[in-house]
Design a protein that fits this description.
Elements: H1 2-28, H2 57-96
């Protein structure tokens, strides 16, 4: 139980660090929006399609970096959920035995 708690605390600190990076990327360009939990595909770039960086290289590359960080954040949240369920089950087994 102690290692599970320490693991969750470390994951929480990493999550706070990743969210700080997302907020940093959001402040670099207003077209990325202010959302922490949303991928930034909904914000158009000048031109018809923005799948390549022919239209606006800096913004498209920044958006891709932000989307990678958001994906990392979702991965950390998933691992935290699984670890918390494991810790909860260990806690219940300890007290009900």
């Amino acid at each position: 139980m102690i290692f599970g708690t320490i693991f969750l605390i470390i994951l929480y600190l990493i999550l706070k660090y990743v969210i700080a990076w997302i907020n940093y990327f959001n402040n670099l360009d207003s077209r990325l929006g202010d959302s922490t939990w949303r991928f930034s595909y909904d914000y158009p770039v000048v031109g018809d399609r923005d799948i390549s960086d022919l239209d606006d290289k800096d913004f498209v590359r920044l958006r891709r970096k932000k989307n990678k960080i958001v994906l990392l954040m979702y991965s950390i949240v998933l691992v935290m959920f699984i670890a918390s369920m494991s810790l909860l089950s260990q806690f219940l087994i300890f007290f009900f035995n």
